Amino acid sequence: MTRILAIETSCDETAAAVIVDGRYIHSNVVASQIELHRRYGGVFPEVASRQHVLSIVPVIEEALAQAGLGWAELDAIAVTEGPGLAGSLLVGVNAAKGLAFMRGLPLVAVNHLEGHVYSNWLVPQTLSAEARTMHPVSDPPNSSFSVQPSSFPILVLIVSGGHTELVLMEDHGRYCRLGGTLDDAAGEAFDKAARLLGLPYPGGPMVQRAAQGGDPARFALPRGLMSPETAATHRYNFSFSGLKTAVLRLIREQQASLGDAAWPEGYAGTIARQAEDVGAETDDERRKVQMIRDIAASLQTAVADVLVSKTLLAAADYGARHVCVCGGVAANGELRRQLAQRMALPYSIPPIWLCTDNAAMIGAAAHYRFAAGLLAGRDLDVKARWPLRSW
Ligand code: KG4
Ligand code: ZN
After folding, report:
1. In angstroms, rounded to a whole number, what is the distance separating the alpha carbons of residues 277 and 248?
2. Domain presence at residue 379
3. Rounded Cα gap, residues 166 and 146, in angstroms
4. In angstroms, rounded to a whole number, what is the distance separating the alpha carbons of residues 267 and 270?
């Protein structure tokens, strides 16, 4: 049995978890900084690293307490080495190094993207009763959820705030990158469009909320690199930057036709706060609120359509036996709906709370590196940029 304490601080979540044998979640603690960054409309790097400094010790203590473990019962300490915000990564790496040195434990350095991939190996039902109170299990238990050893080759779609990648995984630690975004990541497209719509940070969940009751077919938004001409050279690549231009153009057109300079800001906030009753009083207001809902629904449908189409294509081309979808955008309901509808192969997608950044996934990835004897030295530094590579 291998017990790993994992630490993740690559962006704006301070997280620690105890993972057993790369699959079983004995604890999973995430201190979110969302409220702190909301006033800036995005992650403010220096504020993020300072908050990590404040949260890191209590979060680690809580993870150990929830797992009911002492230091002597751990086999290793794992930490995210990159990619991410350098100042944020440093807090986690320094904490992990100090603890490993003091307790005489091996140190394992993990790539954050590899962590997202391994979120699919976790068995969420193993979360302890105490930890479960922090994650109201909204996802129904799914016995076919986590990946089995016989699943290789696996086609992996990583969709987060900074990355959109299609990767063929031939075995543990064996990655072949098939393609990725040429400009904005899928999460970035959500975040930028949300800002244009006047929706607060974080953009993805807000777009999803605004899309409730929206007509996804009302506006035909661009599907980047899907035309026959571009698909030939960019079969597994993505482009999402055209979406924000299209959304901006739509907003301007609608603003002009509705004759309200205050739109969309005046209505979007209402939508974000109230999922059901938006409190629109007049017909005119209702029309404007509906417009935002329709743009949001059209946007998430367009993004999900491209992601699922290219994933299906790559999986068929490479004879994948299983598909894994992961990263913050994998939390999106429309993406999950389209996957369920269109995917013929066995596939896995983590519950929402394991899609966005967490340390459980870092512990899962670390398990395989640790088993292969890949340990970090005392000179471990952070890597702000670090593509997913085979080891
Ligand atoms: O993986 P993640 O937590 O952090 C990174 O490694 O980037 O992903 C964050 C991204 C953000 O762009 C956020 O807007 C997006 O995931 N996201 C969503 C949803 N929840 C988070 N996008 C669409 N729908 C969601 N429900
Ligand atoms: Zn992430």
Report:
1. 26
2. no
3. 19
4. 5
Q: Which residues have C-beta under 5 Å from ligand 2, the single-atom ion?
A: 160, 357
> Can you read off the two tokens belonging to residue 124?
């969420």
193 with 74, same domain? no
* pLDDT greater than 80 at residue 329: yes
Cα(355) to centroid(ligand 2), Å: 8
Mean pLDDT of the chain: 90
Q: Is 329 in the pocket of ligand 1 (CB under 6 A)?
A: yes
In a domain, 93, yes or no: yes
Whether residues 228 and 192 fall in one domain: yes
Q: Which helix (H) or strand (E) holds 180?
A: strand 174-180
Q: Which residues pair with 154 in a beta bridge?
A: 169, 322
- The residue to mutate among 329, 332, 337, having the most atoms of ligand 1 within 8 angstroms of its beta carbon, is 329
Query: Measured from the CA of 185, which atom of ligand 1 is nearest?
Result: 12
The reply to whether ligand 1 has any atom less than 6 angstroms from the CB of 13 is: no
Instruction: Identify the domain containing residue 124 by its residue range.
Output: 3-138+353-371
Asked whether 186 lines ligand 1 (CB < 6 A), one says no
Rounded to the nearest angstrom, the distance between the alpha carbon of 282 and the centre of ligand 2 is 41
pLDDT confidence tier of residue 282, bands split at 50, 70 and 90 = confident
> Domain containing 229 — which CATH number?
3.30.420.40
Number of domains in the chain: 2
What amino acid occupies position 233? Answer: T
143 falls within a domain: no
Over range 39-44, report the average pLDDT: 85
